[in-house]
Amino acid sequence: MTRNLTSIDPYSPSTGYYECRLCSFRLRSDDRVERCPECGGAVRNIAVPRE
């Protein structure tokens, strides 16, 4: 039996997941994000391919 695990791990290569380096705020965006909307800090893309 195969389960759909998208509710547990919603990774999608077409959607970026970003995390602020200062306040740890996370957001999902189809567009590139460079600054945190909460504090203005730099963000990093945490959507990485998984095996």
TrEMBL record:
<protein>
    <recommendedName>
        <fullName>DUF7129 domain-containing protein</fullName>
    </recommendedName>
</protein>
<dbReference type="InterPro" id="IPR055553">
    <property type="entry name" value="DUF7129"/>
</dbReference>
<dbReference type="Pfam" id="PF23455">
    <property type="entry name" value="DUF7129"/>
</dbReference>
<feature type="domain" description="DUF7129">
    <location>
        <begin position="7"/>
        <end position="51"/>
    </location>
</feature>
